[in-house]
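User: Sequence recovery, please. Input:
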């Protein structure tokens, strides 16, 4: 997630450098073509490229709006995960009888690992050492590790209820939290696996280049450099807006505009360890970069 301080302009330029190069070549070629005697006779009313530019703007506005909605939904879901993780451990602490510190610690450790494992699986990264050590120690293996950890939550709740250490009402409350965590996980997986239609990007790119192709024929031919510059700058602005929406549309792509799942998992770990009275509470390092993961 981008932080409200310095932002790397070079990161964004690197993302669209090939499009900038292509548009520059395209603008020079169209500008020189417009200077040929036969093409100089062609003059289009400026309303025509203006109308096409308006259409491109509307399409880009829709694309950016949809991408932002996906990004914001991901952040909202992870906000719910933070709250439900705290609530789960708080209820476990409240419901467990005296002397059940190990049971409380089991739930707390599992929930901490669940948050890290969910973030890493959404980014399709290898599990971190912290997660691997826990999985090996507790013999957890499954195709969907976060779901398997929630299954372990449910199994242990069922065992505790069977031993009469939890009432049916308390079990229902805890199961409700587990259900909400599972719903949040499913929403994240839906966002990750639902791809924005590629045909939409193709249509936008075609319209941008058609706009760049006809724009010089609606401008004054007396100043070639100005004509080329305008033909270059406006399509670059359109491409930059479209690239911004593409970057935002997948909030779990392991990039600077990601939902900061690792940072949120660290916050959850710190909160949970403080709640259970753990003496080994990790410190959250201050981020010196322009984004956090």
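Assistant: Recovered sequence (293 residues):
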């Amino acid at each position: 997630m981008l932080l409200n301080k310095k932002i790397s302009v070079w990161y964004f330029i690197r993302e669209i450098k090939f499009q900038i190069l292509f548009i520059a070549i395209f603008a020079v070629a169209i500008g020189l073509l417009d200077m040929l005697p036969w093409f100089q006779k062609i003059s289009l009313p400026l309303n025509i490229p203006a109308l096409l530019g308006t259409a491109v703007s509307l399409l880009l506005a829709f694309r950016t709006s949809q991408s932002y909605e996906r990004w914001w939904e991901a952040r909202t879901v992870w906000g719910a995960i933070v709250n439900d993780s705290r609530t789960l451990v708080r209820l476990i602490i409240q419901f467990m009888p005296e002397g059940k510190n190990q049971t409380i610690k089991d739930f707390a450790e599992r929930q901490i690992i669940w948050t890290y494992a969910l973030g890493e699986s959404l980014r399709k990264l290898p599990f971190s050492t912290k997660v691997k050590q826990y999985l090996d120690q507790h013999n957890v293996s499954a195709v969907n590790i976060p779901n398997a950890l929630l299954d372990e939550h449910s199994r242990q709740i069922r065992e505790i209820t069977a031993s009469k250490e939890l009432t049916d009402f308390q079990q229902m409350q805890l199961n409700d939290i587990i259900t909400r965590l599972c719903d949040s996980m499913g929403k994240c997986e839906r966002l990750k696996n639902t791809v924005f239609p590629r045909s939409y990007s193709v249509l936008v790119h075609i319209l941008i280049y058609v706009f760049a192709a006809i724009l010089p024929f609606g401008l004054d031919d007396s100043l070639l450099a100005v004509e080329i510059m305008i033909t270059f700058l406006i399509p670059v602005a359109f491409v930059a807006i479209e690239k911004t929406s593409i970057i935002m549309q997948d909030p779990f792509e392991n990039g600077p505009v990601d939902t900061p799942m690792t940072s949120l998992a660290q916050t959850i770990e710190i909160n949970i360890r403080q709640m259970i009275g753990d003496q080994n509470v990790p410190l959250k390092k201050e981020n010196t970069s322009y984004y956090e993961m």
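The chain has a mean pLDDT of 84.
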